[in-house]
Amino acid sequence: SFSLSSVTVRERGQFSSRDVRWKAHLSGAMLGDYLTALLIAVLGYVYPAYLCFKALEKHKRKPEALRGWCIYWTVMALYTTGVQVTDRFVFWLPMYAEAKVAFVVYLWHPRTQGALYVYDAFVSPFLTKHEQAIDRHIDETNTSIGDVVVKRAQGVVDFAREKFAAALNQLPQNGDRQQPNPRGARNATEAAAMHFAGGPKRS
């Protein structure tokens, strides 16, 4: 008879590894990571961008007709940000990859126009409620980043200026360095003359 107590540690390890492989198989049963990313890129960005281009060319004098595409790209930007988090925590869910592909199609498809629903139901109310706070944080961040960039740039300029000045100060010292002169010579010219006048040493 089979009982849990009869399962060895090795067999338990095998069951654990099989369980992990089973979960991985469920998450990518139909679509692999590469194919999922490719489909999302094509169906979520390339094709909608082409449709947006056609709308821009067709409604040049009707900016209000482009509101739907502005909403789509707003929702798509939030989706792209959010999926960076969900990919790390719920990737093991069955049909997760297929659900991502279906969602991006749902956002722009003429029959569903899911981006309009998501925007009107969630995005617009949230951003409208927190718009002033978001703008304040953006302004503060821009100011802080600007101050840091200015300080860093000034520090780089000061450092380069100091190094350049130090290099200039060392040039005369390097020019004054000479080889040791023969005994009694006061300078290099006199040492050369004494050496020539002395001639080669005789053995």
Give a written overview of the molecule.
The protein has 203 residues and is mostly helical. 76% of the residues lie in helices and 0% in strands. It is built from 6 helices and no strands. The protein has helices at 9-27, 33-58, 67-89, 96-108, 114-176, 188-198. Helix 3 (67-89) crosses helix 5. It starts with 8 loop residues before the first helix and ends in a 5-residue tail after the last helix.
Strand count: 0
Largest sheet: none
The secondary-structure class comes to mainly alpha
- Unreliable stretches covering 5 or more consecutive residues: 1-13
Strand content is under 5%
Q: End-to-end span in angstroms?
A: 108 Å
Q: What portion of residues is helical?
A: over 70%
The radius of gyration computed from the alpha-carbon positions, rounded to a whole number of angstroms, is 37 Å
Overall average pLDDT: 76
Name the shape in a single word: elongated
What is the H/E string?
HHHHHH
**Number of discrete helical segments:** 6
Keywords:
0% strand, 6 helices, 203 residues
List the helices and strands and how they pair.
Layout: H1 9-27, H2 33-58, H3 67-89, H4 96-108, H5 114-176, H6 188-198
Explain briefly what this protein structure is.
This protein has helices spanning 9-27, 33-58, 67-89, 96-108, 114-176, 188-198.
